[in-house]
Amino acid sequence: MPVRNRFAEMMPDLTEWRRDFHAHPELGFDCHRTAGIVAEKLRGFGCDAVHEGIAVTGVVALIHGRARDSGRVIGLRADMDALPIHEATGKPYASTRHGKMHACGHDGHTTMLLGAAQYLAETRNFNGTVALIFQPAEEAGAGAKVMCDTGLMARFGIAEVYAMHNRPGHPLGEFNIRAGAFYAACDEFRITIEGKGGHAAKPHMTCDPTLVASHVILALQSVASRNADPTQNIVLSVCGMRTDSEAFNVIAQRAALRGTIRTHDAGLRALAAERLRAITTGTARAFGAEAEIEFLEGYPVMVNHAHQTGIARQIALDVSGQCLEAGYNMGGEDFAYMLEERPGAYIVLGAGEGPGLHHPEYDFNDDIMPYGCSWFVGIAENRLPL
Q1: Domains in the chain, start-ordered, CATH in brackets?
Q2: Which of 25, 37, 355, 381 fits 361 for a cystine, CB–CB 3.0-4.6 Å?
C-alpha cells in the first residue's frame, strides 16, 4: 500500500484548498471560516453525517464503509487553528490577516484529512465507520480536551483515534513515531517578586527585585541539574522578565518572571512544581523580598499506545518505506487528551528542509500531502478491514 495514485490526481485541488486556508488563518476556537469550508466540502464528498459546532467550531464527519457489521468506529483527527505570528514568507498566498499565520502546518493537516475523507467516501473499502475529527484550538485552549469534555468519544462510539503532524528538517516522506511517552507535559509559571524600589544611587535603601529575580533564575536551573533524575527528561525555561521601572536611575518595586516546565513523567512533573515554589520563595525571602507564584498546569504527557503505535508504524512503512524510531519531543500536544480517553497513536511526517515550526518564514510543504492522505486512509482500512 504505497502512496495512493488518487492523491497525485487530487494534488491541484489539495494545493488550492491548503493555500486558501493558509491565506485566511484563524486562532483558537475562532475557526468559523475554516470549519464552514471543511463542513461544506465534507458534505460535497458524500459523507454520511456532518456535525458542526462541537467545542465551538469543531467538526466531526462520519463515513460508513461498505459493511458495518463490525460496529467499530475509528477516529482520525486534524487541527485547524493558526498562531499569532506576523508572516514573513512573501508567498502569493501569504496570510491576509495581520498578526495571524499558519506557522505550524495545521492548514496542511486539515487539507490532508479532507483529502483522505474524499477518498474514503469514494471507495468505502472498510467495515465500520470512520469519524473525521477537525479540531480547533490546539495551539492554545486545549481544543482536544474541550471536544472530549462534550462527550466526543462516547457520542460517536470511537474505539481508537489517530493523528499526524508535519516535521520540517526531516527527509520528505520519512515518518517518525515512538510508543509510550512522546510529547511532553507543558506547564507554565508566572512569578512576581515584590521588593522595595528607590533611587539607583542608593541601592542600600532598597530591596532590588531585579537582583532577586536574577538569583531566582539561576537557582531554578538546579531543578533540572540537581533535583531531577538525570535519566529523566525535563526542561525548565524562564522565558521573560519585566520590572515596573523603565528609567535608568530607578530601582523597581517589583519584577515579573514567566516560563515553562516540560516533563515526560508525572512524578517529575509534580517534583518540578514543588521545587519551583520552594526555591523561588526561599530565594526571595533570603534577600528580604516576597514572591507570588502562579502555576498553570497545561497539556499532559502525550502517550502513544503500544499496539496502535505498531500499526501506525507499519502503515507508515507501507506508504513511504521510511519510519524511524522517534526521540522524545519536549513540545506539547493536546491530542494527549484524546489518547487518555481512547487507545491510539500520533505520528510525525518529515517535510524536508525549510524554516521550522512557529517561525515567521515557515510554510507547509505541499509535496507531503499524498503521504499524509495515504497514511490516514491506510489506518482506516487496516483498523476496519472488510
Answers
A1: 5-183+301-383 (3.40.630.10), 185-296 (3.30.70.360)
A2: 355
